[in-house]
Recover the amino acids of this structure.
């Protein structure tokens, strides 16, 4: 629709008088609509809109949070976009005597640029070219609109940040582990990861560090379930042959286990650096629910 409107704007109204009348109608509608949206966006509390959006949610907490974030992003941006649209419409209306001739001239220029001749078969080519331009405009405006909507939906996770500063769709323990490894290892570290989870995403969030995560054959084609409901098979430190470590030569060996089959209560407090990280500088007295042990190689030894 946007592309067709754009073409009609330049082709059907390539006349100063008609262009001025057309613009006056469009800008008046834009002014009234933007003024109403501006009033509504500032008058109605954001919490009211979030509650209304939450009332329509039928899924779980993730869908609830997404709906709340989308509403916040939409109406939060509307509070500034609508007044700006009012200002633009007012300026355009006051400068209509200059704007209409300029756009009419642009419309005539577009007609001349896309015209291929005066013969009947040239007319078909002309409209074919204009059809391609319209299709391109429709696709461009559609993609732009979808990208804006998607950005609003992503507001829950990203806000004004992205990538390593937001860590979307990760569990709390994954989040803590990434922060801990960023503090405890240098950027050029080579880390061997042993875990009962599939942690390939760590390679992205810990760049430029290089991570090696050998997957147990019994877990390669198994899809993990939330909250560890499906225990995956995994390698432990004692399962690795000495030759493998000698060939890989990692700087660190990380053991990260969450499942009851692998968490050893006697070893969850073995890594003092992890305990200090959990205690924000002081060794925490709480018993960790997961087992995180980071040791340098080759001095890390065999438990």
């Amino acid at each position: 629709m946007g592309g067709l409107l754009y073409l009609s704007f330049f082709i059907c109204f390539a006349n100063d008088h008609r262009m001025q009348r057309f613009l006056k109608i469009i800008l008046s509608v834009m002014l009234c609509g933007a003024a109403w949206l501006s009033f509504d966006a500032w008058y109605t509390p954001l919490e009211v809109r979030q509650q209304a959006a939450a009332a329509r949610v039928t899924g779980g907490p993730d869908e609830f949070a997404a709906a709340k974030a989308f509403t916040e992003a939409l109406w939060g941006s509307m509070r500034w976009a609508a007044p700006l649209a009012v200002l633009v419409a007012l300026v355009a209306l006051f400068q209509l005597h200059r704007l209409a001739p300029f756009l009419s001239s642009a419309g005539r220029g577009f007609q001349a640029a896309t015209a291929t001749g005066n013969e009947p078969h040239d007319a078909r080519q002309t409209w074919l070219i204009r059809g391609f331009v319209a299709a391109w405009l429709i696709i461009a405006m559609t993609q732009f609109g979808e990208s804006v909507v998607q950005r609003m939906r992503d507001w829950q996770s990203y806000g004004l940040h992205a990538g390593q500063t937001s860590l979307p769709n990760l569990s709390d323990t994954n989040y803590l582990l990434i922060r801990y490894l960023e503090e405890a290892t240098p950027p050029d570290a080579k880390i061997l990861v042993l875990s009962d989870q599939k942690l390939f995403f760590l390679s992205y969030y810990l760049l430029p560090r290089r991570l090696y995560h050998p997957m147990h054959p019994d877990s390669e084609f198994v899809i993990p379930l939330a909250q560890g409901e499906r225990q995956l098979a995994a390698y432990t430190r004692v399962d690795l042959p000495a030759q493998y470590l000698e060939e890989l030569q990692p700087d660190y060996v990380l053991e990260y286990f969450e499942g009851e089959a692998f968490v050893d209560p006697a070893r969850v407090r073995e890594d003092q650096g992890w305990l200090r990280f959990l205690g924000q500088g002081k060794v925490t007295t709480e018993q960790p629910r997961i087992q995180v042990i980071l040791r340098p190689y080759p001095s890390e030894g065999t438990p």
In short: Strands lie at 190-195, 210-212, 252-257, 291-296. The CA atoms of residues 27 and 122 lie 35 Å apart. The mean pLDDT is 75.
